[in-house]
Design goal:
The protein has 659 residues and is of the alpha/beta class. It contains 24 helices and 15 strands. The longest helix has 23 residues, at 343-365.
C-alpha cells in the first residue's frame, strides 16, 4: 500500500472550473470569489444573451433576457465589477464568448491594465468560434467571412501582445448538443480549426505559425456513451496530430498536442428523476479523465438540476466536489494510460477516425467549413431527428424517461428555494447603471473611438487595437455590435429544415391521417408557424418540431432564430396560420409571451392557438396558460407525435382528431 510519502508521483490535475454568471456583474463576482475559495482553480464566465449577440441591456431584443443565462457586460465598468478583488494577472479565465469575443477580450485587457497587470502574463481563453454558432448555438452577429476575419484578428493580436492567451477554443460541445454523431463532432470541429488556421496563416509570420497552432484549443462535449466518448477523445488526439503534421508542417510535437477543455453533456440531463443526473455527470467526467494520453486540461461539470432551472451555489459546489474527489481521493493520476494497446478501444478509435476522415474530405471538397455551413447544418438536424426518434421508440433507453419511470418523490426538488431564480430587479438595476455610465462618459471620445473601429473594420486592419481603445473610451457592447453590423452586414443562418419530407415514416401514419382529415375540413393544408422569439439560439427544439410537423403533412413556416414577437405575429398573419408554436429556452418566456399575446389580439389573431415549449417551471406554465397560451411543453414531453396530435386537436377539437 502506498502512502503520500512513498507512493508514485501524481500527474497534475486538470483545471477545475464551474461555468457561472448570472443577474449582474456584482452578483457574479460574489459567486466567483466564493467558488475560488472552495477550491475552484479557474474561472469560466457565462455571459447573458444580449452580451453574446452584441446588444446593450436596454435594447428591444434584450427585454427579458438580461442576466438570465449569464452575466450582462455592457461596458468597462461592468467588467471592472465582474473581476473586483480577483487579480487577473494570476487567474486562468475562460470566457465563453464568440461573436463579441474581440470586444469582451478588449474589455478584459482594459480591466487588467486598470489593475496594474502585465498583459503579457494574462492566461486564459476566449472561445471565439463562430462556425458552430451558425450550426448550433445561434449567437452570431455577422456573415461567416467577416466573422472568420475577426477570429483570426484576435489570434494575431494575442500572438503579439498576450502570448499565454488561447485565442480560440474550437467548440464541438454544441455540435453534440445539436445531435452530431461522434464522427460529425470530430469532423466538423476539425474542419473549423482548419478554416481558422488557413486564414491565420496569412496574418502571422511563418516562423511564428507553429506556436499559434499550439495555442489553438478545443472545447468538447462528453456524452453518456462512455466508451465511445473516451475513444472519440483518443481519435481527436490522433487526427489533430496528423492534421498539424501533414497540413501545416508543424514538426515540434508540443505544438501538435490536442489541448482541450470539457463541459460534459447537458442535452442528456433529464427533468424526470433529475437526481439520476448526478450519475450521468460522473460517468461523462470519467470519459475525459481516465485516458491519460487524451485527458482534458480543464473540466467543468453542469449541476444535476440544470434541466429544471438555474442551479444554486450548493448545486454547483456538488459538481465541483465530484471533480475534487476524482482527482485527489482516487489513484487515477498515478498511472500510465490505462487503454493503450486495448484491442476494443483501438478498433473503435480506428472506426471513428475513418468516419471523420471521410466527412472531412467531403467538407474539403466543398471548399472548407465556411462554404459547407448549409451542408453541416442539415446533417445535424437529421442526426438529431434520428436521436429523438430512438428515444421515442424506446430503442434508446433513457432511465426515468422512457424506462423505469416509477419513482418516489425527490426531496431534492421540493420546498422553497429548490431552484434559484434570478432577481427580478436585476434587469432594471443593470439598465439604470448603463444609463449612468452613458451619462458620465466623454461622448466625443466614444464617438471618435467608434469611428476608428468602423474604419478598421472596413479597411481590413486588425480590429483589436480599435476595440481596446473604444473599451477604454467608454463605448458599450451594443455600440461595438452596431458598428461591426454596419461594417459587415446582417446575416440569417440556415435552419437545416428542408421543405421536402424525410423518408422517416415509423409511427407517422395515424398522425398523417389526422392531419389530412382536418386539412380537408379546413379546405387547405393545416398551416403551422414555428418561431423562436428572443435572443436564444438553441434551435434544436424548434427545428425538430418543424421537421416532424413537415413529415406529418403540415404546411410549415419556420424562419429560424432571433425573431421579435412582432415579426412572429406578422408571419402568423401573412401565412394565415392555424397554429403558432414557439420555442424559448432562456427563461424569458413570460415577458416575450405577454408581448406576443397582446400583439396577436391587436392583429385580430386572438383565435389562433399559441403553444410554447422550453425549460418552463410549473408556476410559470400556469401564468402562460392564464394569459391564453393553449399548451405548454417542457423537456419531459419527448413524444413528438403526441405533440403533433395535440396540434391537430387544437385546430379541430372534433373526435376525428383524437382517433
Amino acid at each position: 500500500m502506498n502512502d503520500a510519502a512513498t507512493g508514485p508521483a501524481k500527474d497534475k490535475p486538470w483545471l477545475f472550473r464551474t461555468y457561472a454568471g448570472h443577474s449582474t456583474a456584482k452578483a457574479s463576482n460574489e459567486l466567483y470569489r466564493m467558488n475560488l475559495s472552495k477550491g475552484q482553480t479557474g474561472l469560466s464566465v457565462a455571459f447573458d444573451l444580449p452580451t453574446q449577440t452584441g446588444y446593450d441591456s436596454d435594447h428591444e431584443l434584450a427585454r427579458g433576457e438580461v442576466g438570465k443565462v449569464g452575466v450582462p457586460v455592457c461596458h468597462l465598468g461592468d467588467m471592472r465589477m465582474l473581476f473586483d478583488q480577483i487579480p487577473l494577472e494570476q487567474m486562468n479565465t475562460s470566457m465563453t464568448i464568440n461573436a463579441t469575443a474581440p470586444w469582451l477580450l478588449a474589455l478584459y485587457i482594459a480591466a487588467a491594465q486598470e489593475q496594474g497587470a502585465d498583459v503579457t502574463k494574462l492566461n486564459g481563453t476566449v472561445q471565439n468560434d463562430l462556425i458552430k454558432e451558425y450550426l448550433s448555438r445561434g449567437t452570431y452577429i455577422c456573415p461567416p467571412e467577416p466573422s472568420l476575419r475577426m477570429i483570426t484578428d484576435v489570434a494575431a493580436y494575442t500572438r503579439e501582445h498576450l502570448p499565454k492567451w488561447n485565442p480560440m477554443n474550437v467548440c464541438s460541445y454544441h455540435l453534440q448538443e445539436a445531435g452530431a454523431t461522434p464522427q460529425q463532432e470530430l469532423a466538423f470541429a476539425l474542419a473549423t480549426a482548419c478554416a481558422v488556421l488557413d486564414d491565420l496563416k496569412t496574418k502571422v509570420p511563418a516562423e511564428h505559425f507553429p506556436v499559434m497552432v499550439g495555442r489553438i484549443s478545443f472545447f468538447v462535449n462528453a456524452g453518456i456513451r462512455f466508451v465511445t466518448e473516451l475513444c472519440k477523445m483518443r481519435a481527436f488526439v490522433e487526427l489533430w496530430d496528423e492534421i498539424c503534421r501533414t497540413r501545416y508542417g508543424v514538426e515540434d510535437a508540443k505544438y501538435r498536442r490536442f489541448r482541450y477543455g470539457v463541459q460534459v453533456n447537458s442535452l442528456g440531463l433529464t427533468e424526470q428523476q433529475p437526481e439520476n443526473n448526478v450519475y450521468r455527470i460522473l460517468i461523462e467526467a470519467l470519459a475525459v479523465t481516465l485516458s491519460k494520453n487524451a485527458r482534458a486540461r480543464a473540466l467543468q461539470l453542469p449541476a444535476w438540476n440544470e434541466a429544471l432551472g438555474l442551479p444554486r451555489p450548493w448545486d454547483q459546489q456538488w459538481s465541483l466536489r465530484m471533480q475534487q474527489i476524482l482527482a485527489f481521493e482516487t489513484d487515477l493520476l498515478e498511472y500510465d494510460d490505462l487503454f493503450d494497446n486495448n484491442p476494443a478501444v483501438e478498433r473503435k478509435v480506428a472506426q471513428l477516425v475513418a468516419g471523420a476522415r471521410e466527412e472531412l474530405a467531403r467538407i474539403d471538397d466543398m471548399g472548407g467549413a465556411v462554404k459547407a455551413i448549409d451542408y453541416m447544418k442539415s446533417r445535424l438536424v437529421e442526426s438529431n431527428a434520428e436521436r429523438i426518434a430512438g428515444i421515442e421508440s424506446g430503442a434508446t433507453v433513457v432511465v426515468g424517461v422512457n424506462k423505469f419511470t416509477t419513482t418516489e418523490p425527490s426531496p431534492l426538488t421540493t420546498g422553497e428555494g429548490a431552484i434559484m431564480v434570478c432577481d427580478p430587479a436585476a434587469e432594471a438595476d443593470q439598465i439604470a447603471r448603463l444609463d449612468a455610465w452613458r451619462a458620465a462618459r466623454d461622448a466625443g471620445a466614444v464617438h471618435a473611438a467608434l469611428d476608428d473601429l468602423r474604419a478598421a473594420a472596413r479597411s481590413g486592419v486588425n480590429v483589436m487595437p480599435a476595440s481596446i481603445a473604444a473599451a477604454k473610451a467608454g463605448a458599450t457592447t451594443g455600440e461595438w455590435g452596431e458598428t461591426v453590423r454596419a461594417a459587415f452586414g446582417q446575416y440569417r443562418a440556415p435552419t437545416g429544415v428542408s421543405r421536402a419530407m424525410s423518408n422517416r415514416t415509423e409511427g407517422l401514419d395515424p398522425v398523417r391521417d389526422a392531419v389530412d382529415a382536418v386539412s380537408s375540413k379546413l379546405g387547405r393544408r393545416l398551416k403551422f408557424v414555428v418561431g423562436k422569439p428572443g435572443l436564444d439560439g438553441h434551435s434544436n427544439g424548434a427545428e425538430q418540431i418543424a421537421a416532424r410537423a413537415r413529415d406529418c403533412g403540415m404546411d410549415i413556416h419556420y424562419e429560424g432564430i432571433r425573431l421579435t414577437p412582432a415579426e412572429i405575429v406578422a408571419a402568423a398573419r401573412d401565412e394565415d396560420a392555424h397554429v403558432v408554436g414557439l420555442s424559448i429556452l432562456s427563461g424569458s418566456h413570460i415577458p416575450l409571451m405577454e408581448e406576443l399575446m397582446a400583439l396577436m389580439q391587436a392583429e385580430g389573431l386572438g383565435h389562433v392557438p399559441v403553444i410554447v415549449g422550453g425549460i418552463i417551471p410549473e408556476d410559470d406554465a400556469a401564468r402562460l396558460r392564464a394569459m391564453g397560451i393553449a399548451q405548454v411543453y417542457t423537456p419531459k414531453d419527448f413524444q413528438l407525435n403526441r405533440i403533433m396530435m395535440d396540434i391537430v386537436a387544437l385546430v379541430d377539437p372534433a373526435p376525428i382528431a383524437a382517433e
